[in-house]
Amino acid sequence: MVDPTLVLILLVAGGLGGYFLWYIFGVIRKKALTGAESLIGKKGIVYTEMLSSKGEVTIDGVIWRAYLVTPGDPLKKGEEVIVKKVEDITLIVERAPR
User: Fold this and answer.
1) DSSP letter for each residue of the chain
2) How confident is the model at residue 32 (pLDDT cuts 50, 70, 90)?
3) How many other CB atoms sit within 10 Å of the CB of residue 73?
4) 69-92: per-residue pLDDT in tens?
5) Which residues fall within 8 angstroms of residue 2, CB to CB, at 6 or more apart?
6) Within 10 Å of residue 2's Cβ, how many Cβ atoms?
7) Residues of the chain with pLDDT > 70: what percent?
8) Are 44 and 57 in contact (CB under 8 A)?
9) Going by C-beta distance under 8 Å and a sequence separation of 6 or more, which residues neighbour residue 42?
C-alpha cells in the first residue's frame, strides 16, 4: 500500500518543479532589449530647452540628442518626455502626458 503522505509530497514537488520550469522557459524566450532599442517607451527629462524641434534629454543619467515628434511644441528644461523612436543615436520624443 502507498503512503498518502508520500503521494502528496510528490504531487507538491512536481507542481513546484513544473511551475519553475514554466517560468524559466518564459524568461529564456523573451527577447532581450539592449542598446538604444531599450530606450523606446522610457521617460526622460529635457536637459536643454527644445525651442525648435531639437535639443537634449537625459535618461538614466545619460544625455541624448533628441528631436520632437511634433515640431513647434517647445519644451522647457525639466519637463518630462517619452521616447517614441530611435534613429541612429538620436531619440525622437514627445511630451509626456500630465
Assistant:
1) ---HHHHHHHHHHHHHHHHHHHHHHHHHHSPPP-GGGGGTT-EEEEEE-BSSSEEEEEETTEEEEEEESSTT--B-TT-EEEEEEEETTEEEEEEPP-
2) low
3) 11
4) 887 778 999 999 999 999 988 999
5) none
6) 7
7) 98
8) yes
9) 59, 60, 82, 83
Measured in degrees and rounded to the nearest 5, phi and psi for residue 48 equal: -120, 140
Q: For the ranges 17-21, 28-32, 37-41, which has the lowest average pLDDT? A: 28-32
**Whether pLDDT at 36 is above 80:** no
| Residues 6 or more apart whose Cβ sits within 8 Å of residue 40 | 83, 84, 85, 86
Burial class (CB in 10 A: 0-12, 13-18, 19+), 40: middle
- According to DSSP, the residues that pair with 62 across neighbouring strands are 59
